[in-house]
């Protein structure tokens, strides 16, 4: 059975111009022509076109494709393996470029331009994982608190970030000391540290209710990327994320009890 160039183009999802180009390049010449001189493709031509499009999708040039299809001695497997290696190298290169772009986006997310030296001075080991930041933005953007936090973070100046990170660093040192000294997560010292963190979030980002603080602490335990924003990996201890979560939940319970008692007094 024979097919016109228009029919083949429709079958294969290519343009008529592409088929003409393949014909001129000697890559796919139709098996016959009509009495009027129009190209007619047979089933063998369609099978060859399918192979051409397969190699094109993998990034082979027309010359490379022709060499594979027309040389009986050509080893298609060797060509494919070589192409696979090149694609793997290209993927690695693109991943490196994506990491560079991610770092640039991180700087923009802080709302303030920083040189590498300034960034290290302000943030130290705290790293903003772009994948987590993107997921968190999707997760929290629907809430009023999430929108407020993003807006306020974007408005912080370099000096704001310096003060914020100094405050966070001092709190983190106290948290590590309490954990290392074996203070119970439900004890007064740990609860006070949990409350201090809640107030820190309220002061710098958004009004953080005890219920919101519970959700934030749940993320610390569930996602290492979230906890790394509070305690960098080099300072983390096994069980520390769970310890902080337990303290936050206990403090939320304490705050709820305080409000109930105050309501009864009135």
TrEMBL record:
Matching entries from SMART domains are given as: HTH_MERR
Specify whether RNA-binding is a keyword of the entry. Answer: no
Any matching Pfam family = TipAS
Q: What UniProt keywords are attached to this protein's entry?
A: Activator, Coiled coil, DNA-binding, Transcription, Transcription regulation
| Residue ranges of coiled coil | 77-104
Name all HTH merR-type domain ranges. Answer: 1-71
Q: Which domain of life is it from?
A: Bacteria
Q: What is this protein called?
A: MerR family transcriptional regulator
The organism encoding this protein is Streptomyces polychromogenes
């Amino acid at each position: 059975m024979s097919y016109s160039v228009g029919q083949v183009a429709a079958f294969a999802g290519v343009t008529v111009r592409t088929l003409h180009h393949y014909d001129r390049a000697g890559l796919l010449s139709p098996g016959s022509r009509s009495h009027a001189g129009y190209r007619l493709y047979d089933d063998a031509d369609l099978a060859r076109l399918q192979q051409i499009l397969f190699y094109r999708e993998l990034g082979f040039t027309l010359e490379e494709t022709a060499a594979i299809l027309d040389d009986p001695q050509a080893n298609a497997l060797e060509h494919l393996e070589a192409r696979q290696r090149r694609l793997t190298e290209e993927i690695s290169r693109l991943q490196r470029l994506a990491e560079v772009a991610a770092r640039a986006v991180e700087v923009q997310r802080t709302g303030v331009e920083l040189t590498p030296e300034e960034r290290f001075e302000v943030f130290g080991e705290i790293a903003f994982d772009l994948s987590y930041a993107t997921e968190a933005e999707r997760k929290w953007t629907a809430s009023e608190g999430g929108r407020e936090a993003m807006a306020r973070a974007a408005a912080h100046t370099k000096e704001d970030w310096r003060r914020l990170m100094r405050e966070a660093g001092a709190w983190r040192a106290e948290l590590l000391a309490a954990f290392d000294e074996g203070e119970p997560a439900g004890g007064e010292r740990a609860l006070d540290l949990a409350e201090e963190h809640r107030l820190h979030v309220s002061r710098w980002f958004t009004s953080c209710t005890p219920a919101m603080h519970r959700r934030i602490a749940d993320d610390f335990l569930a996602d290492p990327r979230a906890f790394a924003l509070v305690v960098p990996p080099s300072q983390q201890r096994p069980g520390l994320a769970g310890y902080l979560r337990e303290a936050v939940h206990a403090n939320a319970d304490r705050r709820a009890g305080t409000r109930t008692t105050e309501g009864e007094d009135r």
